[in-house]
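Form 7-S
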Amino acid sequence: MFIVSLLLFLCEAAEAQQVPSKAAALEAAVLEVAAGEGPLIWQKVKPKGEPDPSLTARDIFTYALVLCETGTHPDRLPRLFDLLVQMQDRDPQSPGYGNFLWNWFDEKVIDFNSVDFCMRSGALLWIKHRDTLPEEVRHQLHELLTYAVEGCMRHKVGPAYTNIALMNAGNLILLGETLGKPDVAKEGYARLNTAFEYIHEIGIHEYVSPTYFGTDLDALVVIEAYCRQPQGRAQTQALLELFWTDIACNWYPPIKRLAGAHSRSYQYLHGTGYLNTQLWRNGWYAQAPTEDIDAVYAAQAKWFPSPDLKKLAGQFPRLVRERWGKEQQHTRTHFLQKDITLSTAAATYARIDVPMTVDGLDQSPARVRCYFMADGRGDPYGKNKTAAGAAHQKSIHLTPFFTAAQDKSDALALVVYRNEDIPEDAPVLASHWVMPLHTGGFWINEQRITLQEGKSATFALKPEASLIVRSGTAAMGVKVPWTRNRQGNPAPVALVYDGNPYGAVRLTVQHKDSLDKEGEAQAGAAFWIRVGSGLETDADFAQWKQAFMAGIPEIVASANTIRMQVPGSQENLVVEASAPYDAPAVLLPKPTQAVLEVNGKEIGRPLLEKGLTRSQN
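Output:
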């Protein structure tokens, strides 16, 4: 017995010695990813002369942090900080006082988020590296941070702006504590508490974002690692548990991606984004980014998600529901089965949301997903970027009235284009349901449709028609039982393969095209989506297909009111809305009130209780 105990002790001791080396090796790997983008930024900086006009202050700050973290090219720091001094607004009478130009070519501060993106690195530079900086650079950094404190204090955003709210609170906490400004730190903790209590009440507003969840996690791990007050650490640890549990709930192992409806997505076709860096850092995503300067923040983490969360991600079937706002329609539903998932949001939050999705049908490595898009630019695949605000280029789409009800494997969605939703110069007005080309086959009712890669084709659908897609043991059925164009007439619906190189096809409702005369009617469409799982044989598929085709939607529509009903797996789905179409009148099944629930059990708020209790004491 003694020998066994001794062997166990020695094994545990050996493992304990290995953990720090493994952690150090992983941190070095993350920093290597961050450093990979460095040469591109230095190329924009240019050692002499005028920098590239698109050079951003946030990239300069982050590159300086990477150089200090990796101990490379210290000779480049003076050039970087000289540029940052020139990019900071130091006019006390200016609205941007203490803030930074976003791009070098900007004449004034036009994106007030810039100071918070910059101070993510600025605070860490002072906390970790001020003693090793050249004296002149250290003086410049201290001066930059002193002005930036004012910029961060002035930059007040609501807690619904999740990533900036967390980032701003963290910057004030760390700057206040490291610069000896207790009032600033106190304000930072107060703002963190406001964000925390908001999330405890209504959930994460920027819900399940494949981009901004990464930024949220960056902010939280830095606060957790470097803040000095137990309250802040308790709250950030609770929030980290919530975010990672949310990720686990929506992680879909068959495609190794975050599935379901997303807020603020930059990658419509595949549903990936900056979150991949944090996923890779924590062992959820196998492929390391080749270059990502912001990976330097993931390298700061001292808190890590439990490996047990992967067990949650592997449980099927599971019904995930969550709130993300104050209104009853500010909810999201995601039903995950072993071979397919269906998800809806009952409202949209931003112009780059993906409010209805199906994942798991693509049989190619690209893993193109199904998603809804309201299109006013002729860009169904989200590839053509345009100005979105003063400083950014994004592939944005329209934000009409959108709502949906979901009963596990069935979803019923309504979109209505109010006059104010449609730009005057919009060349098209279309509702797209984008799908992968590479599946097991397409049918319109009983007729199988042949689509050849690279060869364009269009197939019209009648209002009562069913589009059926099969992929392995999974299937999806789509009906578009109601449409309206700008003239008040039924709008045409067609399955379209336009020969695009993205491996995608689309079911498109054409509410208006460039040849249409402009009308005043509120265009719209209804979509009924059903997914099937575990269809092992042709007979299983045929039976499932017949059942969906036999389903009859009930639609009552007038100029100002629409009521829709379809049979779901357990109960009828009902969506009803009326002008001015700012909220649904009826949604059945009723939306959840849970911050995060799985199979009917609230798991979100309990994760936050420790931080909430600490904040109230």
